[in-house]
Amino acid sequence: MKFVDQVKIHVKAGDGGNGCVAFRREKYIERGGPSGGDGGKGGDVVFITDPQLTTLLDFSYQPRHFARDGEGGLGSDCNGRDSDDHVVRVPIGTIIKDQATGEQLFDLSTPGEHLIIAKGGKGGLGNMNFATSVRQAPRFAEPGIPGEEKLLTLELKLLADVGIVGYPNAGKSSLVSRLSKARPKIADYPFTTLVPHLGMVAYHDKSFVLADIPGLIEGASEGVGLGHQFLRHVERCRVLIHLVDCGGSDPDRNPLKDFDAINRELRLHSPALAEKPQVVAGNKLDLTGAPEVFAEFRKALKRRRIEPVGISAATGEGLNELLDRVAPLLFASPASSVKPSAKAKPSVKPVAKRRAKPSTKPSKRTKPSRPKRK
Ligand SMILES: Nc1nc2c(ncn2[C@@H]2O[C@H](COP(=O)(O)OP(=O)(O)OP(=O)(O)O)[C@@H](O)[C@H]2O)c(=O)[nH]1
Ligand SMILES: [Mg+2]
């Protein structure tokens, strides 16, 4: 399936129905009076997060999402029908931005979250609402209010706990397929992985989501290779596994050079990404000569007080140690990587806190003391 992580869309809520001008006309009933009903409310455009979705592909085929207008009011005191909401399902991790200003409006990062993105217009009042003792036959009614209309950009940032970064061919996809049930394509040519893949990793009684993203190379920030367009998917990760190829046959590259180049690219993408805790792993230690290359790499990193883990995604060597190094960084802090969105924030203070406030006013329940008789 095609992976789309950025789309431009147009949403429009329904307009309110117009109020109606009508008069009751019936045999033997003189001056029946105004009987125009109110218009119905236009439908809202509602976004709901759906854990089953992993791409914004559907939006590239259907970029317009319009809710229906409210029905107009009718005679005989009949109000128009309110329109149903137009419900749009989006993947978890969708960020909604204003197309014109680029300002971030919402971050939908919890499953089942509901968000009214465009509000439907209210229906206009019919002429029966305007009858007064001095104006018994109003010949006017209110028009409906137009629904909100917005041009938006949707961006998807996958929600993973741990992201793997590294050069192409370092073995990122091999590591993900070894640790989880995800099966990304593995091959010995660069840029095998063209879109991010997620895998669920079990660690003792806990589990976490691991993301394999396409390989980075020097100059990715200027668009070399696949560029760093996919780095946004590891922006929300709490920990990065920096995978370095220790079994490479290219004489121009060495693990330390690769390590520095990738870190430079991370910094150029976003300084916050470069600050994320990293577990450095040297891969392909099963190949001849690789343990020696790794030993040298380890010595060089020791001077920077970094302790890399030696692994082989092919044989499974060192993978337990790698998980043991990742887990404390991941599970130590109770804070989740999932930022609570503006909608998910509790709008009401916890009751306990409110009770704790010393109140100066006497409680309603306590009886007021009677004044003493003199
Ligand atoms: N011997 C050996 N080969 C490995 C190991 N890990 C990966 N490989 C091989 O290295 C090649 C590249 O592996 P991938 O997992 O596709 O590498 P990748 O980092 O995902 O590459 P891109 O998707 O292109 O960025 C494949 O031929 C793998 O079989 C390992 O531990 N030992
Ligand atoms: Mg890959």
Structure description:
- This protein has 374 residues and is an alpha/beta fold.
- The protein has two domains: 6-156, Spo0b-associated Gtp-binding Protein, Chain: A (Distorted Sandwich), CATH 2.70.210.12; 162-331, P-loop containing nucleotide triphosphate hydrolases (Rossmann fold, 3-Layer(aba) Sandwich), CATH 3.40.50.
- Helix content is 17%, strand content 21%.
- It has seven helices and 14 strands.
- It has helices spanning 57-61, 172-179, 255-269, 271-274, 290-302, 319-331, 351-356, and strands at residues 6-12, 45-50, 64-66, 86-91, 94-98, 104-108, 114-118, 149-156, 162-166, 197-203, 206-212, 239-245, 278-283, 309-310.
- The protein has a six-stranded mixed β-sheet, sandwiched between helices. The chain has a five-stranded mixed β-sheet with strand order 3-1-8-5-6.
- A hairpin with a 5-residue loop joins strand 5 (94-98) and strand 6.
- Magnesium ion binds next to helix 2.
Name the CATH superfamily assignment of the largest domain. P-loop containing nucleotide triphosphate hydrolases
The overall average pLDDT, rounded, is 82
Classify the oligomer: single chain
Small molecules (ligands, ions, cofactors) in the structure: guanosine-5'-triphosphate, magnesium ion
How widely separated are the two ends?
A: 90 Å
Strand content: 15-25%
SSE pattern: EEHEEEEEEEHEEEHHEHEHH
The structural class is alpha/beta
- Please state how the strands of the largest beta sheet are arranged side by side: 10-11-9-12-13-14
Counting structural domains, the number is: 2
Poorly predicted ranges = 334-369
Overall morphology:
rod-shaped
The CATH level-2 architecture of the largest domain is identified as 3-Layer(aba) Sandwich
* Total number of beta strands: 14
Enter the CATH topology name of the largest domain. Answer: Rossmann fold
* Rg over alpha carbons: 31 Å
